[in-house]
Specification:
mainly alpha
Length: 92
């Protein structure tokens, strides 16, 4: 709402969101390994309770569950930019 009141454009909003995503990416990258270890620990514990201690569990190395954090948002941003560009070229 503040952006609109200040006369901001959609492009200004997109740029602000892009900067926020770029800033948040490294923070998320730092937090994910710890969150993944916690999740794996909890899941392994629950599966062991269900299977009993004799149930063999194969686990992945830490960090193997989640790919590069920025990849999804970068792909989405690139796709959206291509769509906007295509819309502009069809309007001309």
């Amino acid at each position: 709402m503040e952006l609109r009141e200040q006369g901001g454009t959609l492009r200004d909003l997109e740029e602000a969101l892009r900067r926020e995503c770029e800033t948040f990416g490294p923070v998320l990258e730092r937090e994910l390994p710890s969150a993944q270890r916690d999740l794996e620990r909890v899941l392994v514990g629950r599966v062991r309770r269900l299977l009993g201690e004799e149930g063999a569990l194969e686990t992945r190395p830490p960090g193997d569950l989640v790919g590069e954090v920025g990849a999804a948002s970068a792909r989405t941003a690139a796709r959206d930019a291509r769509r906007r560009s295509a819309k502009r070229s069809t309007r001309r």
